[in-house]
Write a structure and sequence with these properties.
By secondary structure, the protein is mostly helical. It contains seven helices and two strands.
């Protein structure tokens, strides 16, 4: 019974976060300039500057060819820059252009504002309980091998930032 309730709540929470607080914001602020997966790529590179395509592939858990195609598209849109290394020209480091950084910042600010409104409807004790529960959930997911530790680390960092809201 509890796992069924948890599953239903989990699905509703995932839908809220993905569709309403992520995809909708990306679509409205970018005028469909980028897709949600492309935005996730920009966000990853923002958090991991000078990553390689291999880092991107591993970090987003997508195939190397998919990561390569994503980089090509974002580079053509002027949102991502590629830098070769002197030591090995086969290695390309990725970074955001100013336009790419502005886009990530705008979407992140809007998402933070929306999350703040939701969290302000909760008491400080409820917010702390939610954040602690989500952190423990992520830790458990890593422990059983469902979630990559780096993904959990990135997510926990975001939880800590939002936990500052009172």
């Amino acid at each position: 019974m509890e796992s069924s309730r948890a599953e239903c709540l989990g699905e509703a929470f995932a839908q809220l976060m993905r569709v309403h607080l992520n995809e909708a914001i990306v679509n409205s602020l970018t005028a469909s300039q980028v897709t949600f997966p492309q935005f996730e790529t920009l966000k990853f590179i923002d958090r991991h500057p000078m990553s390689t395509v291999g880092d991107l592939s591993e970090g987003l858990q997508i195939s190397y060819p998919s990561a390569t195609n994503m980089v090509i598209r974002l580079h053509k849109k002027g949102l991502l820059m590629k830098r070769g290394t002197r030591a090995d020209r086969r290695i390309v480091r990725l970074g955001l252009t100013n336009t790419g950084k502005e886009l990530v910042n705008a979407v992140t600010a809007e998402r933070t504002e929306m999350l703040t409104k939701v969290l302000q409807k909760m008491s400080p004790t409820e917010r702390a309980g939610l954040i602690n529960g989500l952190e423990r959930f992520l830790q458990s997911a890593v422990e059983v091998g469902v979630l990559h530790p780096e993904t959990a680390k990135d997510s926990s960092h975001g939880l800590a930032e939002h936990g500052q809201m009172s």
